[in-house]
From TrEMBL:
Organism: Pseudomonas duriflava
GO molecular function, one term: electron transfer activity
SUPFAM superfamilies: Cytochrome c (SSF46626)
Domain Cytochrome c span(s) in chain numbering: 96-182, 195-291, 304-395
InterPro entries per the UniProt record, alphabetical: Cyt_c-like_dom (IPR009056), Cyt_c-like_dom_sf (IPR036909), Cytochrome_c_Oxidase_Subunit (IPR050597)
Name of the molecule in the record: Cytochrome c553
PROSITE patterns per record: CYTC
Residue spans crossing the bilayer: 31-54
Lineage: Bacteria, Pseudomonadati, Pseudomonadota, Gammaproteobacteria, Pseudomonadales
Keyword set, alphabetical order: Electron transport, Heme, Iron, Membrane, Metal-binding, Transmembrane, Transmembrane helix, Transport
Length: 400
């Protein structure tokens, strides 16, 4: 190795010396040759430095100030330039978006970026670059820039890209939530991200709604409950679905579809992928056995929408090539394939979002999802929200 290094050194040094002689001799061509040679020498020298193992990759020593300045300057400018074409949704103050983002922040971000009332782990503090306490940095970025960072991640740091980039609706939910981080107390954070306070948790357990931690499903369910509620009732109104009373086979195959990436969600995919087959089966059985909550109180202005939705659900829209939904989803038509989900009493916002996702082919799903792609292809946005209002108002009995 030493001989090879000496040889390489000779290769670099002799052209530099020669170039120096040319420059003194005064020819501009030779001067140019010197500059090119110097640049080459720097590249070869840098390569040798790394090849000989002299570059420090130790996270302990941190970056040199100049490296840190360069990386941050490059990152800030890249994010600024690349987020120019990003268009935010109409409102980022929507409590439904904030609630959905909070649940995932606890799963996927808080360990690195801290959360109100809980600092970063000692292990994370040994990273280079160290992830910032996010609440202190939010004001430095526009919503468009935050969206770009969360979607794409940051190279040369541990900041990960979003698992399902097609689910921009989820990324906006995260942005909506992190914009609120600087003003949240730890109690508010607990309520949004963990669902129940410690005392609420105890009450639910005493009432038999939560399995104990000694039950094999207990610790796993403790996580689901944060977003889907103690009784699988979802957290509404929101785009987090009700699981209680859903068909067992649909629940199981949906968890499998998330786990193997057939159904796209940066929020549910990591959770489902971390479960083994047996636990997925038990979770599906558990949620299918719970009673579905009564539909949320109906608002009188919605009545017309519900009626319009009912007509489409029952008869389809033949001139648009939209089939009857009731044929597969009820109410009152049997027998139906057990993979077809029960939509009755589901949150309207969740139903509308899923229809939009089917239409833009961004949702994915089980092996039967193509049925929905063709069913919704020609639905208008108004028809989707009418259908969602209709199904959200149905009681489970009516759909059996
Ligand atoms: C494994 C650790 C890790 C996880 C998990 C992580 N990040 Fe980061 N994040 C980082 C690091 C490291 C940086 C710093 C990059 C830099 O210094 O340029 C960063 C930077 C950021 C920034 C830019 C802040 C700034 O001023 O530099 C935002 C915004 C951000 N992360 C949001 C998130 C969100 C939201 C999540 C969850 C969806 C998340 N991060 C998950 C490590 C992480
Ligand atoms: C961080 C919040 C969060 C946690 C924790 C969570 N979920 Fe979800 N879950 C969601 C969201 C949001 C959706 C809707 C995703 C989409 O749009 O596809 C969802 C969707 C689902 C669906 C599909 C329902 C349907 O009608 O298609 C199932 C099944 C599910 N979750 C089961 C679980 C189980 C079981 C657990 C616990 C192991 C769990 N979830 C934990 C947020 C969460
Ligand atoms: C031929 C049968 C069929 C028809 C007709 C049909 N669907 Fe579906 N639908 C399905 C199947 C199968 C799924 C499950 C997709 C998956 O996740 O793989 C589904 C899923 C859904 C979901 C998602 C539920 C959830 O919990 O995520 C909604 C919402 C929905 N359908 C609404 C409708 C509406 C509205 C119509 C009428 C315009 C309709 N469907 C027509 C078979 C059908």
């Amino acid at each position: 190795m030493f001989r090879l290094a000496r040889h390489l050194l000779h290769l670099i040094v002799s052209p530099v010396l020669n170039g120096g002689r040319y420059l003194i001799a005064g020819s501009w061509k030779r001067g140019l040759a010197l500059l090119v040679t110097l640049a080459l020498a720097a590249v070869v020298g840098g390569l040798m430095f790394a090849w000989l193992g002299l570059a420090s990759v130790s996270a302990r020593s941190g970056h040199w100030p100049v490296t840190e300045w360069f990386l941050h300057m490059a990152m800030r400018n890249a994010v600024e330039t690349r987020s120019v074409s990003v268009k935010p949704p109409l409102t980022l103050d929507d409590p439904k978006l904030i609630l959905k983002g909070a649940g995932h922040y606890e799963t996927g971000c808080s360990s690195c970026h801290a959360s109100p009332g809980k600092g970063q782990s000692l292990i994370v503090q040994q990273m280079t670059p160290m992830p910032p306490v996010l609440a202190t940095r939010i004001k430095e970025w526009t919503p468009e820039e935050l969206f770009w960072i969360v979607k794409n991640g940051v190279k040369f740091s541990a900041m990960p890209a979003w698992l399902a980039p097609e689910r921009e609706d989820e990324i906006w939910a995260i942005v909506a939530f992190i914009r609120k981080l600087p003003e949240l107390s730890s109690e508010q954070y607990e309520h949004l991200a963990l669902g129940t306070s410690a005392s609420g948790w105890r009450q639910n357990q005493e009432a038999g709604l939560l399995k104990g931690l000694d039950d094999p499903l207990g610790p796993t369910l403790a996580n689901c409950v944060r977003c889907h509620g103690a009784k699988g009732e979802g957290r509404g109104p929101s785009t987090i679905p009700i699981l209680a009373g859903q068909r067992e086979r649909y629940l199981l195959e949906s968890l499998e579809a998330y786990a193997n990436g057939e159904r796209k969600s940066g929020i549910m995919q990591p959770i489902a992928a971390a479960l083994d087959d047996q636990t997925r089966r038990e979770l599906a059985r558990h949620y299918a056995s719970l009673a579905r909550p009564e539909p949320a109180a109906r608002v009188s202005e919605q009545t017309e929408a519900i009626q319009r939705g009912e007509t489409i659900a029952q008869y389809g829209v033949p001139r648009q090539g939209v089939p009857s939904c009731a044929h597969c989803h009820g109410p009152r038509q049997t027998p139906r394939n057990p993979i077809y989900p029960d939509l009755s009493g589901q949150h309207a916002d969740y139903l509308t979002l899923q229809l939009e996702l089917f239409k833009s082919q961004k949702r994915g799903g089980t092996a039967y999802v193509h049925l929905m792609h063709s069913a919704v292809r020609r639905l208008t946005p108004e028809q989707m929200s009418d259908l969602a209002a209709y199904y959200a108002a149905q009681t489970v009995e009516a759909s059996q």
